[in-house]
Amino acid sequence: MPAEAKNKPVYVISVAAELVDMHPQTLRLYERKGLIKPGRSGGKTRLYSERDIEHLREIRRLTQELGVNLAGVEEVMRLQHELDDLQGEFEAEIERIEDEIRSQQRTKALPAPDDPRDRPVYVISIAAELVDMHPQTLRLYERKELIRPGRSSGKTRLYSERDIEHLREIRRLTQELGVNLAGVEEIMRLRQELEGTRSRMEGNVRRIQQDITERMTQWRELPPAKAETDGE
C-alpha cells in the first residue's frame, strides 16, 4: 500500500478499537500518552489511518506479548514515528531531486565521509568505566545483540563512540525508565533500523546527486548539432 494511502484517516474510534481488539478508552489513553496521533474530521471526530492501526497492533504486542511497560512503549513508538518521518523526508528529497533534473540545475555531489563515531577504539574495561557498568554486563548485552563491538586482529573487543552512546541509552532505559530487556531489545532494534535507514537514505541521495552531476556535465560537453545545409 502506498505511504500516502496508509496515512489517510478513515476509521472512527469504534471501528479502530475493534480492528485492534482494544477498548476505545484504551485508544484515548494511548493518544493522551502521545503513542498514537489520530487525525480529526471537520467535526473533530477522531479518525485513524492504516498506519495508526499498525502502531496500535505493535503497542498491543509490546504490552501483552513482551510485557513492556508504558515507558518502554513510549520509546519504541517515538522511534517508530521517527522512522515514519524519515521515510517521508526521503520521499520529499527524491521529489526535490527529480525537480532539479527537470529544471537541469547543476548539483554538487557530497562525499561519503567516514563517521569517526564508528571507529572501534575502547577495550571493554574502558568502555565499562565510561558507561558505569560491569564488563560482564557489556558481555551480556552483546549476547543479547543489543550492542555489537568490533574486534581487533587478536579478537579483543573494541567499542566505538556509537557503542558507548548505545550503552548509555540502554542504561537510561533500564535504570531510569524501568524497561525490561525485551523492551530494550525492541528499542535498540528500532534505533539500529533508524540509523541504517538514515544512512541508506543519505547514500541514495548522494548517488542520485552524483548521477545528476555526471549527466549535467555530459550534456554540457556535447558538441553543438550541425545545421543542415541547403540542397542536401
Keywords for this structure?
Multidrug-efflux Transporter Regulator, Chain: A, Domain 2, two-stranded antiparallel ribbon, 232 residues, single chain, 62% helix, mainly alpha, 3% strand
List the helices and strands and how they pair.
Elements: H1 3-6, H2 13-20, H3 24-32, E1 39-40, E2 46-47, H4 50-65, H5 70-103, H6 124-131, H7 135-143, E3 150-151, E4 157-158, H8 161-176, H9 181-221
Antiparallel strand pairs: 1-2, 3-4
Helix pairs in contact: 4-5, 5-9
Descriptive overview:
- The protein is mainly α and 232 residues long.
- Among the domains are: 65 residues, Orthogonal Bundle (Multidrug-efflux Transporter Regulator, Chain: A, Domain 2), CATH 1.10.1660; 66 residues, Multidrug-efflux Transporter Regulator, Chain: A, Domain 2 (Orthogonal Bundle).
- The strands form two sheets. A two-stranded antiparallel ribbon has the order 1-2.
- α4 runs antiparallel to α5 and α5 runs parallel beside α9.
